[in-house]
Amino acid sequence: MNESLDFNVASDVTQGSGRRALMHLAQGFALAGGLTFMALIGMSLVSIVGRKLFSAPIRGDMELMEVGASFAIAAFLPLCELRGQHIKVDALTQWLPVRVRDLLDVLAHLLCCAVAWIMAWRTTQQMFDNHENGDVTTLLSFPLWIPLMLIVPSLVLLGVCALARISDIFQRMGGRA
């Protein structure tokens, strides 16, 4: 439980302007996700108080919570990947040489990239299907393609961040060789 809440990530890899831009973009996505969650918390609070005190909840509050949370959660993933803060179970690999662990990390980041881009592709397909079919939420008739459209850029950025992590590992491995 020694996690850092600092956004300034000290890296042993020299960060160029592209990497700094990627970090700023990932931080911007995370900030948008955080602001979305704050708005959802406020909406939920107003709805709960309205329901309990005035019998007047916000109509469709659960639908708005689902739609907003799906975007916000996806928005946090790129920064989590870029900072290397995903949950990592390394109890079985601690005894392996550092180079083997680095190669396993490369494999994990490659899989993360592949899954992120496959999810982006499939989410895009689902977005087009929902738009074509006119799918909406039950109470508010909110178009379901809109939150899907907001999730896709986060998934694409997640894949790019995974590639940046692979680059970091190869640079670090090159320095140890």
From TrEMBL:
UniProt feature coiled coil, ranges: none
Tree of life domain: Bacteria
Protein name (database record): TRAP transporter small permease protein
Species this protein is from: Pseudomonas laurentiana
Key words of the record: Cell inner membrane, Cell membrane, Membrane, Transmembrane, Transmembrane helix, Transport
Bilayer topology term: Multi-pass membrane protein
InterPro entries linked: DctQ
GO cellular component: plasma membrane
Family to which the UniProt record says this protein belongs: Belongs to the TRAP transporter small permease family.
Gene Ontology terms for molecular function: transmembrane transporter activity
Keyword Cell membrane among UniProt keywords: yes
Assembly with partners or alone: The complex comprises the extracytoplasmic solute receptor protein and the two transmembrane proteins.
Function: Part of the tripartite ATP-independent periplasmic (TRAP) transport system.
Domain Tripartite ATP-independent periplasmic transporters DctQ component: 41-171
One Pfam family named in its UniProt record: DctQ
Localisation: Cell inner membrane; Cell membrane
Residue stretches spanning the membrane: 29-50, 103-124, 144-166
